[in-house]
Specification:
alpha/beta; Rossmann fold; 3 domains; 6-stranded parallel sheet; 16 helices; elongated
Length: 421
């Protein structure tokens, strides 16, 4: 069975490329169904976040090139342009890559915990779409347990490092004290919730939460003594915001140039700090051209993030050791699958022999033979029947000089090297 993973991430592709191949949550199930209908693999799971899009597959043959063709077709991105940003991992390397992703070792922010939740969502989506089988189910479940062990046994998550943390730290560098500032948070997902928490911990007390679903916005706003608005109301309240942090799943921009320009005019050109964490982007990139706006994307946060990673480097080395061991365990299980059919066939054959001989032994008793005679016949005949083919094959192997087969039999049946004289 072939296991492979292909995709791109923040290290191989810019945000412009990543947003072109992003699978929005509402389209992901459709993409999985189309993938299976085209018979590109027997099993598939897709994870698509702001920092990565990856496809995990299991198939009887390597179909990675066909999957790249499909990815190019599905997103209407020329294959030549796409291929130079892609990586492809097979077998052991594919398992190791997923374990590293789940543990936060492949993230922009080393050890960040959000990716594990995103992987679990990808797993559940594929499970609901019925595109998972035995291999990928085992692989993802194993990755979850590996990630849990890494976080339990190392200090990989001991310091508060995340995109949300980096965004707040950057806001502090620009404004200094945040206590008198107002933040507009666009979206109400996990990243925005984490951002709100960091802002609150750093003294900011006035928050506006804008979301497509107003109830979710109210729930989050209430927790931090803020107030909620809909996305359509952003233009009315934007001028109040010193800090704007956006992270929605919208396929189109939420803030355009015209809206931001009007807000800056109302603010009388007081500076506005913006971070667009979303992929595809929520804020029109042209907004960065405005003199009084400091617009950053997830890629721009890297420098801030690097300053907070030093304490995690040693923990990462320990995590890599854990992952190496667990990859070997998973590959041992995967390799064992090739023997399953043979084992089942051998057992079925033995059961058939036993069934036939038991029937004969019973008939012997019914015809007047003693139970001891029947048992002796059963044991003798069953032993000879089961041993006949292996012994014949080993004798022929010895005659042909196939010493490796004889040695394999000794190992398989755990035979002693010494023979009594």
């Amino acid at each position: 069975m072939q296991l492979f993973a292909l995709g791109l991430n923040h290290t191989t592709a810019t945000i412009e490329i990543r947003e072109q191949v992003n699978f929005s949550p509402d389209r992901l199930k459709h993409a999985l169904h189309e993938f299976v209908e085209r018979e590109l693999a027997d099993e598939v799971a897709i994870i698509s976040t702001c920092n990565r899009t990856e496809i995990y597959c299991s198939s009887t043959i390597d179909t990675s090139e066909a999957v790249i063709d499909w990815l190019s077709y599905y997103h209407n991105v020329p294959k030549r342009q796409l291929s130079k940003h892609l990586y492809v991992h097979h077998q052991l390397d594919a398992a190791k890559h997923l374990f590293r992703v789940a543990s936060g070792l492949d993230s922009m922010i080393l050890g960040e915990p959000q990716i594990l939740g995103q992987l679990k969502t990808a797993y559940q989506t594929a499970k609901a779409a019925d595109t998972l089988g035995k291999l990928l189910s085992k692989l993802f479940q194993h990755s979850f347990s590996v990630a849990k062990r890494v976080r339990t046994d190392t200090a990989i998550s001991s310091s508060p490092v995340s995109v949300a943390f980096a965004a707040v730290r950057l806001a502090q560098q620009i404004f200094g004290d945040l206590t008198e500032r107002t933040a507009l948070l666009i979206g109400a997902g996990e990243t925005i919730e984490l951002t709100a928490r960091h802002l609150h911990e750093n003294g900011l007390t006035r928050m506006i939460v804008a979301n497509r679903t107003i109830d979710r916005a109210r729930q989050l706003a209430k927790e931090f003594s803020g107030y909620a608005i809909t996305l359509e109301e952003i233009s009315v309240h934007l001028s109040e915001a010193d800090v704007v942090i956006a992270s929605t799943a919208s396929p189109t921009t939420v803030l355009d140039m015209k809206t931001v320009k009007a807000a800056i005019k109302v603010r009388k050109h007081r500076p506005m700090f913006m971070v667009d964490i979303a992929v595809p982007r929520d804020i029109d990139s042209k907004v960065s051209q405005l003199e009084d706006v400091y617009l950053y994307t997830v890629d721009d946060l890297n420098e801030v993030i690097q300053e907070n990673l030093r304490s995690r480097q040693q923990a990462a080395l320990q995590a890599e050791e854990i992952i190496d061991v667990q990859v070997n365990h998973f590959m041992g299980w995967l390799n064992s699958l090739s023997a399953v059919d043979t084992i089942c066939h051998l057992r079925d054959q033995a059961h058939d022999f036993r069934h036939n001989l038991v029937d004969k032994a019973k008939r012997m008793i019914d015809n007047g033979k003693s139970p001891y005679e029947a048992i002796d016949y059963l044991a003798h005949t069953l032993t000879n029947t089961l041993m006949h083919t292996p012994c014949t094959q080993l004798r022929q192997a010895g005659y042909n000089g196939q010493d490796e087969l004889v040695l394999a039999a000794k190992q398989l049946f755990q035979l002693n090297e010494e023979v009594d004289s």
